[in-house]
Amino acid sequence: MSVEYSGQVATIMLGSGERFNAMGAAEWRSLGEAAQSLAAQEVRAVVIRGRGGTFCSGSDLREWEHSAAGDVQEIFATIEWALQAVEALPMPTVALVEGAATGAGCQLALACDLQLMAESARIGMPIARLGILVPPSFANRISLRIGPSRTKDLFYRGTLLRAPEAHAMGLVSSCVADHEAEPELAELLALWERLSAASLRAAKAAVDTGLGPLSQPARDLPVGPATDAAEFGWRVGAFLHRKSHPAQPL
Question: What global pTM score does this model have?
Fold first, then answer.
């Protein structure tokens, strides 16, 4: 992960382009630290995107295969801390979603103010296949956008939504043709450049303040058990060592 600057825009680049930019605990920690650093800087906007044409497939499950339940729970706490650090950024943020945004990668895209999603990209939370227990904060990021029934259906099915469907239901803010993703991002950033930075920050703060009574209680809860103790180990092992389509994201 790295932070790159172009004028008054900071871009957080995720991963190396390998393993669909799945991130280990150290990388999630670096993301949170980068967000906290950017919060104190005079940048007009923050872009979050992944290298290699993929946003982020969530956590690197190789760290989890032989981990104790307490270790996985600690990783979840680190991920949630990083997500909240992104949400706390005072300036406008946008996720450029290409390839896939799954699991914690989906949560990261939703932690941004806007999601500019390429038409062929996929987004979702297919975590039930691993025996991961959904924390309230994760569920809340989705249900505040698409409602409780659709959120439950998304978790129950483990569906990966294509960009047009995700946009139609309000999960992401925009869907564009793959070849238009970069021009659309450039146009959005150019628009923000022409507007008052103070007004943009105030608009973000006003919306977030209004949503606070709905979002904050779930964020304040302590991180509970992260996995199904009876099944998590063999499910993660089976996923990591699957022989069919081994290069597929979670």
Answer: 0.93
